[in-house]
Amino acid sequence: MLFSDEDNRLLIVEDAFLLKGFLLGNGQALISALDEVVEQSPFRYMVTPGGYGMSVAMTNCGPWGWVTDHKGYRYQKSDPVTNKPWPEMPTIFIELARKAAEMAGFYHFSPDACLINRYSVGAKLSLHQDKDEMDFSQPIVSFSLGLPATFDFGGLTREAPKTALLLEHGDVVVWGGESRLNYHGVRSIKAGCHPVLGEFRINITFRRCQ
Ligand code: SIN
Ligand code: FE2
Q: Which cofactors go with this protein (predicted)?
């Protein structure tokens, strides 16, 4: 892994970067904006098409939201819990996501979907590819807040070698281009108490899905 001291930007593999501490200084503002989103569209546990309940609680904001149920994985414009459109994507989310994408060399990022994942202790996300989007030309930008997590970043097959990254409060991962479809996953969250988010880890992921 290459590391540039100047801007805390680590190259994981081609076109995939860890921006260490990128959100520090905006943590509180992000959490306030998040609270407003969650007031309108609460966290919920979704079910996979195979009938398994997910250990990560989810909600969305922006024009399109990612959902899963017995019918499959998809993006939709309305929240199935409230039957209303998803809350607007807060300006601070979009601004920071765009800046992070630029830091990784991806210009003009225009996300139309923002998935918010809430991990409690023991929650995890198995190895997967993000491939429910119609547009793979834009990157994925992923914010981490709260409790730390080990993020495995692999390659284009399940078996490809993986880099284990420690994601802490304020970190951002950006991947696109050659690594847009790389497998990745989050290992089970270890017990801990974060000064701001307590026993939770929050991940906010931005994508262009249409
Ligand atoms: C995801 O892969 O969708 C979430 C990644 C994370 O929680 O860091
Ligand atoms: Fe993912």
A: Fe(2+)
CA of 181 to the centre of ligand 2 (A): 9
Whether pTM exceeds 0.90:
yes
Cα of 130 from ligand 2 centre, angstroms: 5
pLDDT tens string for the chain (210 positions)?
A: 666 656 799 999 999 999 999 999 999 999 999 999 999 999 999 999 999 999 999 999 999 999 999 999 999 999 999 999 999 999 999 999 999 999 999 999 999 999 999 999 999 999 999 999 998 999 999 999 999 999 999 999 999 999 999 999 999 999 999 999 999 999 999 999 999 999 999 999 999 999
* Binding site membership of 60 for ligand 1 (Cβ less than 6 Å): no
3-state secondary structure of 178: helix
Q: Which residues are annotated as a binding site for Fe cation?
A: 128, 130, 184
Ligand 1 contacts CB of residue 186 (under 6 A):
yes
CA of 18 to the centre of ligand 2 (A): 15
Least Cα distance to 44 among 11, 18, 19, 66 occurs for 66
Q: How far apart are CA 113 and CA 135, in angstroms?
A: 12
> Which DSSP category does 89 fall into?
P
